Amino acid sequence: LESSLLTQPWASVRFGESTFLAKVCFRDTGYILLISDLSSVWYESADSEAVGQRSKELNKRLTVHVSSFLNHLCNLMCPLLAGRPGATTAFSCHRSPSGLRLHVKSELSGLPFYWDFHCCPAPLEMV
């Protein structure tokens, strides 16, 4: 995933009053997200096991395969990075000393869908 992320272009995204540069790469086996405010860089890499666990915690009423969650996340994030965020999707972020949390609120199969990207500071070699 990391090598695929390198070929992705950076995109400018806005959450509230904050502007970031971000890139993301999704696969059936997980995802990796890189996000920066030009003074800090954060990332999250999650495999299918981590996605499955978090999806159960955040979306107790949804029972879909992990690949469906990953596909839905891709369908929410890719338009955002292309400058066309979905009208029914809300994004917010919260910075803390330990990292950055990107919260997503949407719908999946007519039910509320929530996701939190738990980003930690990126290692220097990744940047």
According to CATH, the homologous superfamily is: DNA double-strand break repair and VJ recombination XRCC4, N-terminal
Structural class: alpha+beta
Adjacency order of strands in the biggest sheet: 1-2-3-4-7-6-5
Q: Write down the overall mean pLDDT.
A: 90
The major pleated sheet works out as: 7 strands, antiparallel
Percent in helix: 25-40%
Number of helices: 3
| CA distance, first residue to last residue | 15 Å
Counted beta strands: 7
Count of folded domains: 1
Proportion in β-strands: 35-45%
Order of secondary-structure elements:
HEEEEHHEEE
Taking pLDDT < 50 over at least 5 consecutive residues as the criterion, the unreliable ranges are none
> Which geometry do the CA atoms define?
globular
Q: What is the CATH level 1 assignment?
A: Mainly Beta
**Gyration radius, to the nearest Å?**
14 Å
CATH topology: Dna Repair Protein Xrcc4, Chain: A, domain 1
Subcellular location: Nucleus
Keywords: DNA damage, DNA repair, DNA-binding, Nucleus
GO molecular function: DNA end binding
Domain XLF-like N-terminal: 9-120
List the helices and strands and how they pair.
Layout: H1 2-6, E1 11-15, E2 18-27, E3 30-36, E4 41-47, H2 48-58, H3 66-81, E5 90-96, E6 99-108, E7 111-121
Antiparallel strand pairs: 1-2, 2-3, 3-4, 4-7, 5-6, 6-7
Helix pairs in contact: 2-3
